């Protein structure tokens, strides 16, 4: 069974998808981490992403692996653990730009589809239900207000010992929403058959339970 979870930045997709997958015994595929790893490499490499030839050459040098150790996800970029580095705001903004580029999408598309074809998966991203897994048995569009998403990101950064600025975070979220929703290739949008879940006033456990119930109901019909 395939479960697709889409939604804007900061909606809690990764956390929710990971917990739901654990409850269901499904494999969690973090597509966002894959795109972030590519963005990080392109930043390190100072690649001109507007130059398609340079971009393709850079992508050929990238190897990405996601492994789970004692339930904790680790993202490896060219065999280096970059789990912390890919969560920076700079990488987030770069990932939003580069994930709209066809060579980048092609790099990951086949990998994502092959994983879903051979496993029960929960996959989260921007276009999972509309593009990557259009035939997923369960599709969720997870959303939350801009203020709530900004507060969550602020608290997350504070917990890491950083000194975030709420207004900057809010502006970055609005900017990323605009980029994701208006990109030419696979823009962020709710699939027609997706269930909308607004998590603004819901706890993590409530959202997870809602998704697990939807998956179990779909399983009963299969």
Regions with little confidence, pLDDT below 50 for 5+ residues: none
Beta-strand proportion: 15-25%
* Alpha carbon gap, first and last residue: 10 Å
Number of β-strand runs: 8
Read across the widest sheet, the strand sequence of neighbours is 2-6-1-7-8
Shape: globular
Using only CA atoms, what is the Rg?
A: 17 Å
Q: Major beta sheet, specifics? A: 5 strands, parallel
Per DSSP, the total helix count is: 9
Estimated helix fraction: 40-55%
Helix and strand string, N-terminal first? EHEHHEEEHHEHEHHEH
Describe the structure.
- There is one protein chain.
- This protein has 222 residues and is α/β, with parallel strands linked by helices.
- It is built from 9 helices and 8 strands.
- The chain has helices spanning 13-24, 31-45, 52-60, 89-98, 102-117, 128-132, 146-159, 166-182, 204-221; strands at residues 2-6, 27-30, 64-69, 72-77, 80-81, 121-125, 138-143, 195-198.
- The strands form 2 sheets. It has a 5-stranded parallel sheet with strand order 2-6-1-7-8, sandwiched between helices.
- The longest helix is centred in the C-terminal third of the chain and has 18 residues, at 204-221.
């Amino acid at each position: 069974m395939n479960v697709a979870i889409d939604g804007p930045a900061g909606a809690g997709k990764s956390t929710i998808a990971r917990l739901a997958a654990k409850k269901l015994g499904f494999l969690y595929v973090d597509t966002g981490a894959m795109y972030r790893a590519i963005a990080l490499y392109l930043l390190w490499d100072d690649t001109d992403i507007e130059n398609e030839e340079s971009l393709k050459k850079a992508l050929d040098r990238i190897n990405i692996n996601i492994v789970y150790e004692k339930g904790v996800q680790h993202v490896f970029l060219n065999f280096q653990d970059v789990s912390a580095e890919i969560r920076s705001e700079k990488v987030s903004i770069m990932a939003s730009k580069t994930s709209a580029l066809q060579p980048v999408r092609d790099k990951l598309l086949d990998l994502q589809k092959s994983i879903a074809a051979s496993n029960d998966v929960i996959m989260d991203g921007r276009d999972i239900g509309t593009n990557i897994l259009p035939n997923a048995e369960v599709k969720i569009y997870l959303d939350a207000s801009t203020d709530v998403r900004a507060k969550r990101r602020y608290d997350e950064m504070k917990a890491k010992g950083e000194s975030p600025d709420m207004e900057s975070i809010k502006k970055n979220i609005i900017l990323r929403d605009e980029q994701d929703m208006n990109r030419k290739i696979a823009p962020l949008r709710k699939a027609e058959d997706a269930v909308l879940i607004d998590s603004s006033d819901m706890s993590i456990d409530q959202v997870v339970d809602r998704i697990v119930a939807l998956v179990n109901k779909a399983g009963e019909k299969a």
